[in-house]
Amino acid sequence: MGTIIDITKAENSKINSVDFDNLDFGKIFTDHMFSCEFKNGKWQTPKIMPYGPLTIDPSARVFHYGQAVFEGMKAFKDQQNDVWLFRPEDNLERINISSERLAMPAFPKDYFFEGLKALLKLDDAWIKNTEGSSLYIRPFIIATEPAISASPAAEYKFMIILSPAKAYYAGEVRVKIAENFSRASSGGVGYAKAAGNYAAQFYPTALANEEGYQQIIWTDASTHEYLEEAGTMNIFFRINDTLITAPTSDRILDGITRKSIIQLAKDNNIEVEVRPIKVGELVEAAKNGSLKEIFGSGTAAVVNPILGFKHKDFKHELPKLEDTYATMFKTKLNAIQYNTTEDPHGWRYKI
Ligand SMILES: *Cc1c(COP(=O)(O)O)cnc(C)c1O
User: Fold this and answer.
1) Axis-axis angle for helices 256-267, 325-337 (nearest 10)
2) Which residues, listed in sequence order, are joined to residue 248 by a DSSP beta bridge?
3) Which DSSP string corresponds to 271-282?
4) Which tens digit of pLDDT belongs to each residue from 110-158?
5) Residues 215 and 204: beta-carbon distance below 8 Å
6) Cα torsion for 13, 18, 23, 25, to the nearest 10°?
7) For ligand 1, atom 11, which residue shows the shortest CA distance?
8) pTM of full prediction above 0.90
9) Is the Cβ atom of 229 under 6 angstroms away from ligand 1?
10) Element containing residue 118 per DSSP (H, E)
């Protein structure tokens, strides 16, 4: 409280030029953005200004060494037009964990929450309460100091930009289980939302796309025997009625959707096993018919069902079930997010 934010309002809103029924994910941005600079060893007065291009020196570290981290969150509007976030303290905690790994300064909690509240109030009209609508929130930090020596920068920019989103539909997703490529290695940056982690996934994913697979299931870098994540999501397997997901580690990102699903499973008396799971076990379960579902979890889609997978020469299509865990978890999480049900764990955060 009491944080001073320097606010410059946009003169005109772009909102009337936006077709909210046909939104491509992450392509349209709201009228304002939040920006806070780190220099002389501290975060300066936070600012909100009209959304627009930045001027950054070409020698800034972010362009050369990828010193950058980000987060992904959503705001939801209920039928009374109240706006809610979902477990936002965890996003702040995680961006600071990511920053620490990339030798970047932690961002203060009051700046984060006061900045988010002021920004969301200014751009409130961009949050629709129609079914499936939300506002995607992208906080990120880049190293802006003009100097290309290979060492941590002394200057950074923390920003938040907002993008209106419809219900996310990834289309039919079949996945290839990685045999050679890996997303993360032990001792590396896999647990951080480091910008470069995504860049490194594009090429293997493009190769998988050419073979007709939309995503890759990443396996551990040393043996490629353990199933770790799906694309940019955490991954769950349902074998018979047991839900299985890998434990978080320095290679597996601690997803907020993942841990919420684990909690909801426990609340609903679904057996959950958080343990390493081998490709061999998955193939065996596929062969003997006990593999019922595979789905990814993450903020954008909440839950993303996977229809089939390939591992080496083995191809498998998942059964088409009437009542899936995937749909059940998505419905329950959305109900909490849109304030249409109780919130026993205190996950909602009112703006
Ligand atoms: C962001 C991310 C996730 C999902 O995290 P959520 O908090 O659920 O959105 C999973 N895996 C990777 C690699 C990620 O970057």
Assistant:
1) 110
2) none
3) -EEES--BHHHH
4) 999 999 999 999 999 999 999 899 999 999 999 999 999 888 889 999 9
5) no
6) -30
7) 233
8) yes
9) yes
10) helix 109-122
